[in-house]
């Protein structure tokens, strides 16, 4: 184990934490259990992270950088506002489906009994996603694809993001049995009609 570089060990810790979060029972994850799964001491964990909250922050940073990187890519590659919204929703649901442990972080399930700033950060993440959807809807309105007006756009963006979060919730609460991307195209069409 001594030959593992610091960056590699940090990544291993975060990957194991994400893997442990994939357990449908959603039991509280302790640093002792995490250390045991990695076959290291708890002290070894704390050499890389000052606290368990800092480990969760590492997962949140991964979620943020991945999701917003993909949203930026969508908006750069697609001029059509409605197509941006559709692609964003599909991406958000596929991300959750591919990363069940991260889904528990995104809905706040894994953050219960953790530092409250972590939940506040995930709330801010959802607000930023909603802002991205609003921007795409504004483009759609300027292209005369949807009704104009800030109130209409805000209501629609909130409804769309609420549907996405609802899919994440259902996915996690069913023990990752109900894939969030099932029937997504038809549902998006209804939300955007």
- In oligomeric terms, what are we looking at? single chain
Q: Which whole number gives the mean pLDDT?
A: 92
Termini separation comes to: 56 Å
Number of helices: 9
Give a brief rundown of this model:
With 193 residues, this protein is mainly α. The chain is built from nine helices and no strands.
Describe this structure in words.
The chain is mostly helical. It has nine helices and no strands. 74% of the residues lie in helices and 0% in strands. α1 (6-21) crosses α6, α5 (81-98) runs antiparallel to α7 and α6 packs across α8 (150-173). It is elongated. The model has no long low-confidence stretch (mean pLDDT 92).
What is the fold's blueprint, element by element?
Blueprint: H1 6-21, H2 31-38, H3 42-48, H4 52-77, H5 81-98, H6 100-106, H7 116-142, H8 150-173, H9 184-192
Helix pairs in contact: 1-2, 1-4, 1-6, 4-5, 4-7, 5-6, 5-7, 5-8, 5-9, 6-8, 7-8
Features:
elongated, single chain, about 190 residues
